[in-house]
Amino acid sequence: MPTAAEIFQRLAQPLEPIPTSETPSLKTIEGIRVVLFDLYGTLLISGSGEVGTEAAPSDVAVAEAFQETGLETTATPEEILACLDDAIRTTHARLREMGRDWPEVDIREVWGNVLTTLVERGRMESPPPETFDIAQLAAEYEARANPVALMPGARECLAALREHGCLLGIVSNAQFYTHGLLEALFGGLPESVGFEPALQYYSYQYGWGKPSQRLFEMAASELAERAIEPPRVLYVGNDMRNDVLGARNAGFHTALFAGDARSLRRREDDSQMIGVVPDLVLTELSQLPGCIIEKTAGET
Known about the structure:
The chain has 300 residues and is an alpha/beta fold. The protein has two domains: 4-52 and 148-292, HAD superfamily/HAD-like (Rossmann fold); 58-145. The chain has helices at 4-10, 58-68, 77-97, 107-120, 134-145, 154-163, 177-186, 214-225, 240-249, 288-292, and strands at 34-37, 44-46, 148-150, 167-172, 195-202, 233-237, 253-257, 280-282.
């Protein structure tokens, strides 16, 4: 059975960011030792703007995903997608009852519940476990419904930050297949481009998603054990509520990535954003290293 990385490689599509009307707001921030990134919409161009939402016609995506994984069903794509929505809502409700303010699902469990529902309705037979992998179904659907590509300058930005000695991490709403997606895009695991294994926080692993404060608190706790205080951390994301507000509440410096109209979320109608101003506004990732790395004499 193909891995998630192989699926995303096979279904890769060329994408370019859609320019915004934002003006960069840049300055040098001294003392930064750690740079944490959001993924979808920041380091990655997301066809939908965010993980788990659809850019391509989702009925086509789900039909092709079922066909690719050998599933036969009398259910229409619309019925399958309705089951998917119901399963996500049910899981969210269960997690909220457990006290999670912004719950996150593990999409493999969700798809398993979808298939169980279809079997109970008589729409399909139970797939044989020896030839069927629920993870493949989830990745086949996501790769079609939400095409993703590297944001221009992502690789070079990470390399420049590593050269400066910064530790790199990830705090992102994500699913299990995000690891394979990064492997497909970078040509290796996240560690191969400098991300610290202990500084990678993917929402599906914890059942909490941004804008919950939980993932930021986890990152701050790990960094405190390394004697790295919050003012020495910069967080980069494309969403004022999910990224900038949460990172600011954790005591981190913040950078709003405003380089793609698909994913930029200013949240100007949200009262929580009153008085919330990011330290930086980036329209290209190439602008980031210069805000952390002070220029040497003679450079312009």
